[in-house]
Amino acid sequence: MEIIEEKNNIRLRALDSFVPKHIFECGQSFRWNFDGMGYIGVVGDKVMRVVEDGKDIIFEGCNVDDFYDTWIDYFDLDRDYGSIRSKLIEFDSIMKKATVFGYGIRLLNQDPWETLISFILSANNNINRIKKTIENICMIYGDKILWRGQEYYTFPSPTILANSDIDTLRRCGCGYRDRYILETAKKVVENEAKLYSLRMLSYDEAIDFLLKFSGVGPKVADCVALFSLGKYEAFPVDVWIKRIVEALYFEREEICKEDIKRFASNKFGDYAGFAQQYLFYYARENHIGNG
Asked: What is the pTM of this model?
């Protein structure tokens, strides 16, 4: 990877396994949106547009300090995804097709608090509604950021949401999840340091802690573990992944979610989380299992 600093931009050359559409359309994050030129996202108090320029990737609105302080870790740029794909290809022909199709996927290292609330909102919901609800929450409770003449908003802190109210959260579009958001925020405030220390615990210990929050079941806990805590053995199973695995591996035979998760763990081991993202993107884009 060659890093070139341009005026208010960073250009990345010879960057393997990085396709913005693959990364931002595989269900792992809800604050990146395509604006016709690239994907604009808000991470912490930073706004950036990610643009493909031929074989180069441009980080617009990014300087060298931000690139090293924030974006290398966020985009997992120090990891060799080519070797991960090579390992997954060894499992079977299905994974070969999925990894070739979604060759540009990278797993983002997101903030655990924002990821926790985002995936509580994802339960029985669709991506467009999830995104809209999160943006409403950020507009009401977050801090404003002016970026290239447009207004963006940070994700609110646990303390701010803990001091919110059910009616306002309901107006944001949370629906029945408003109570979960409020209760979870209050619980995080009591022990915020523990949430951020979960990366240092085992997968099972992290899941046990996450399941104590309101609105968090096995799928949400696995999403938080995979997308913000570096627990790559996690294999989140929702209705779509269930149908996808049934269609690709079980000839559409009905399999319970627990058995799907057990199958993935036994088959993919420590690569289960990577496999989940490749399978989801491949199946959704090719309308397999109605994913």
From this structure: 0.96
